[in-house]
């Protein structure tokens, strides 16, 4: 049924739970797991006075989080005998980047975590999972 599953990860605990689900599905269907972490390379464009030190700190922390998330998911996949490839994607719009990567890689399912933001947080911060659900042309499995 599924041949290639895309797993976006940000290194959070909910992304870790989504990784477990994605690995289980990949193992059951004999699918390849495509694991990605998206880093916004210019998060402070709207805050030009934030300074270079803040940007450097953010980029270091984001890179470290991406590597940890990818390593965790890759470890689960390898332990389960699931073939996987990992990518760090450096783009500003995470949802759009996830969808474009899924299309470019011929993925037929996206498995991702949702942080469950509600109320004002959801309005102000938005939800990558919600945007992916709305815009994706392939099935999306959201882990809460």
Secondary-structure map with pairings?
Blueprint: E1 4-8, H1 13-29, E2 32-39, H2 52-79, E3 84-90, H3 94-104, E4 109-113, H4 119-125, H5 128-135, E5 140-143
Parallel strand pairs: 1-2, 1-4, 2-3, 4-5
Overview of this protein structure:
With 144 residues, the chain is an alpha/beta fold. It has one domain (4-143): Rossmann fold. It has helices at 13-29, 52-79, 94-104, 119-125, 128-135; strands at residues 4-8, 32-39, 84-90, 109-113, 140-143. It has a 5-stranded parallel β-sheet with strand order 3-2-1-4-5, with helices on both faces. Strand 2 (32-39), helix 2 (52-79) and strand 3 form a beta-alpha-beta unit. Helix 3 (94-104) packs across helix 5. The mean pLDDT is 89.
Keywords:
alpha/beta; Rossmann fold; five-stranded parallel sheet
Tally of helical segments? 5
| CATH structural fold name | Rossmann fold
Instruction: Look at the structure and give the mean pLDDT.
Output: 89
Count of individual beta strands: 5
Q: Span from first to last CA?
A: 23 Å
Biggest sheet, spatial arrangement of strands: 3-2-1-4-5
CATH superfamily membership: HUPs
Query: Main beta sheet, described?
Result: 5 strands, parallel
* Low-pLDDT runs: none
Number of domains: 1
Give the structural class.
alpha/beta
| Beta-strand content bin | 15-25%
From the alpha carbons, calculate the radius of gyration and give it in angstroms: 15 Å
Please estimate the helix content. 40-55%
The quaternary state of the protein chains shown equals: single chain
The run of helices and strands is EHEHEHEHHE
CATH architecture: 3-Layer(aba) Sandwich
CATH class: Alpha Beta
- Estimate the global geometry from the Cα principal axes: globular
